[in-house]
Amino acid sequence: MKHSMMKRGFLALALAMVLVLTFSLSAQAAAKEGEDYMVLAKPIPNMDKTVIKVFSYDCPFCYKYDKSVTPEVVKIIQKDGIKYTVWHLKTKGKYGPQASELFAALITKDEKAKVGLFDDKSSFKKAKMAYYNAYHDKKERWGDGKDPAAFMKTGLDAAGISDAEFQKLLKEPATQARLKQWEGAREIAGIQGVPAFVVKGKYLIYTKSIKSINGMAATIKELMAK
Fold it and tell me: Are strands 203-205 and 37-39 parallel, antiparallel or unpaired?
């Protein structure tokens, strides 16, 4: 009898310790304003269930995230019905404006084909990775702003479309609306640079606080629930 009571007492104590440890770890993992994220002074409307990534083709960290981090994070958060979109920063890089126009047009093309941003069939992804590879790995500079035709050729060839098709896509209302929306990228990028991740149109994640793929996904989910 005494042995049974001791055993039950030990089990109760062990369970209590586990609960305390679990609560402690949970508390530590909670995102903190000012450390893990900040609240934007000007919220972005109509982004309630969406994560925005502000990026630039000439940003090395954007490239690193797109190679191994962002696609994995998106796989996790999409299970909770969270959407992911991108805004290209046209004010960074010699060919920022040209890149924005091409990327916006290619996303319109992908949306028509119902192809996701990380799908291997994505025209946007093909062009984006071609620019990343050319600029960061091969150190291509396309005349440092003096040869926009060469810059555009890299993206068009990767996406497998002609300039005529691009011009047609560029004129579409969806593309023009996207480019207008992307004008807001400069203000967001001005806070901590790029890449910049905005959750729910309200919360900017401090990239310095991102330690792992699962941790980033957890922060996004937590902020989305606010």
Answer: antiparallel
pLDDT tens-place string over residues 55-75: 999 999 999 999 999 999 999
Task: Identify the residue with better confidence: 5 or 39.
Answer: 39
Looking at this protein, which amino acid is placed at residue 136?
H
pLDDT of amino acid 23: 37
Euclidean distance between CA atoms 30 and 220, whole angstroms: 11
Q: Is the dihedral of CA 143, 144, 146, 150 positive or negative?
A: positive
Give residue 77's domain range: 37-224
Tell whether 19 and 87 lie within a shared domain.
no
* Contact indicator for 204, 192 with CB cutoff of 8 Å: yes
In whole numbers, what is the pLDDT of the chain averaged over residues? 90
Dihedral (CA of 65, 69, 74, 80) sign: negative
In angstroms, the Cα distances linking 115 to 81, 105, 106, 119, 161 are: 17, 14, 11, 6, 16
201 & 157 share domain? yes
Residue 98: closest CA among 44, 143, 136: 143
d(CA 204, CA 195): 11
For residue 37, CA distances in Å to 95, 198, 214 come to 30, 9, 16
Domain count, the chain: 2
What's the pLDDT at 62? 98
Shared-domain flag, residues 55 and 23: no
Predicted TM-score (pTM) of this structure: 0.87
